[in-house]
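Workshop exercise sheet. Pairs work together: one partner reads the sequence aloud, the other fills in the structure field after running the prediction. Swap roles for the next sheet.
Pair: D.N. / O.F.
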Amino acid sequence: MNSRLIAAAVAMAAIFFAPGAHAQSFINILTGGTSGVYYPLGVAIGKIYSDKIPNVKTQVQATKASVENLILLQQGRGELAFTLGDSLKAAWEGDEEAGFKSRLDKLRTLGAIYPNYIQIVATSDSGIRTLADLKGKSLSVGAPKSGTELNSRAILSAAGMTYKSIGKVEYLPFAESVELMKNRQLNATLQSAGLGVASLKDLSASTEITVVSVPKAIVDKIGPPFVPAMIPANTYTGQDKDVPTAAVVNYLVTSAAVSDDLAYQMTRLIFESLPELVDAHAAGKAIRLETATTGSPVPLHPGAIRYYREKGVMK
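Structure field:
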């Protein structure tokens, strides 16, 4: 009897501890504010994963976006995160001024997704027509240590300016910046977002604006992950010409602690589910397999590399 009980116990243990046998993986998806782009895309990805990866449970977490997401990943409190490329670079290097007290060495990239456009918009009566005209004026640069605020620092630095060059710096979210501009209490705002962002559409519908260009020479001076881009004419009311600017690539990032097999599935399903992502937000239209492996300041996860090699976009 004892030998039979021992054999049964051993058999049960073998089943219980067998790799993948009824084990449930958990994927916490770190996004951004619920009114932004990261959150609806994260919700769509969460549904895709829970529907198509066996024994996986997903959760979508609203956050303060890039910087917070990367810190949470490093702490093991998430398995997938959205981030701007310059925030990712700062995290990998341990840039304390950007909000990282030490180097976040557990980060691994799954792939590049869509770009954010740097959109600097001033009221027409402010007299601001160029980056140099921001000197002595009031400018909202985004919430402190946000991805937008890090973008603001980079653009101003490449143009030979600091916050001290600006007459008054406000650290405000998009909607609050626009309200101040409508009330003539703020000259300009820098917003890092998709084209046609609701806040700037709202502003241009009621206030005459100037969309300030970011020349290619400035963008080239900053370098990757910033790339030259164009805000097409008529993106906003009263903007009758194309305006050169910079774009910053967004990335999906995971942790080195995530298994190769799971990272492979996570990456594969992103690119095999693009119609669902486009349905969730128009930004999904810019996600392309052909550009997924480019420009990341952080190593690709081995699971992602396996997928890209299978698809022929990496050797």
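Discussion prompt: Residues 7-22 have pLDDT under 50 and may be disordered. What would you look at next?
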